[in-house]
Amino acid sequence: MEPEIWAPHVTVAAIVERGGRFLLVEEHTSEGLRLNQPAGHLEAGESLVDAVTRETLEETAHPFVPQALVGVYMTHFGQPHESGATYLRFTFCGTAGEALADRALDADIVRTLWMSADELRAAGERHRTPLVMRCIDDYLAGRRVPLDFVHTHAVGPRRPERP
After folding, report:
1. pTM above the 0.85 mark?
2. Phi and psi (nearest 5°) for 114?
3. Domain range for residue 49?
4. At 85, is the pLDDT very low, low, confident or very high (cuts 50, 70, 90)?
5. Radius of gyration of the chain (CA)
6. How many other C-beta atoms can be found within 10 angstroms of the C-beta atom of residue 38?
7. How many structural domains are present in the chain?
8. Is residue 84, in this structure, part of any structural domain at all?
9. Strands 9-18 and 85-96, how do they pair?
10. pLDDT digits 0-9 by tens, 38-77
11. What distance in Å separates the CA atoms of residue 150 and residue 68, rounded to the nearest whole number?
């Protein structure tokens, strides 16, 4: 029997604020309809900035331009010292254009909506994870890291080893 290989799931999320309201998605999950920031998984060969731009467009139809990293968050589901599932989430803030009318949303997304922080806080039982509010609170507290902090080193073909 081969040993289990542990690997965290790398995800990205977007915070978009307009007039004190935040862009959210209502999505189907295994636990019913939940609220979340536009978010999803990093795909092979993609930078974190490219991933959050893509995921926001796919889930909301709003073109997204990241401006800063709000934070990096880790969540583990499962018993302590067991593999379970670990998620490493990179949350960015930025601006979004108007929704593209001809763009369909991802299959699990029911709708997009704009909520104030207070409305979102009052709907805590509907959050996909505790990170939904934590990320908004960090954003409201002014946490911002410049995008050049997040570096992607593209690796091409391997160079031949020196003798």
Report:
1. yes
2. -115, 125
3. 9-149
4. confident
5. 17
6. 27
7. 1
8. yes
9. parallel
10. 999 999 999 999 999 999 999 999 999 999 999 999 988 7
11. 9
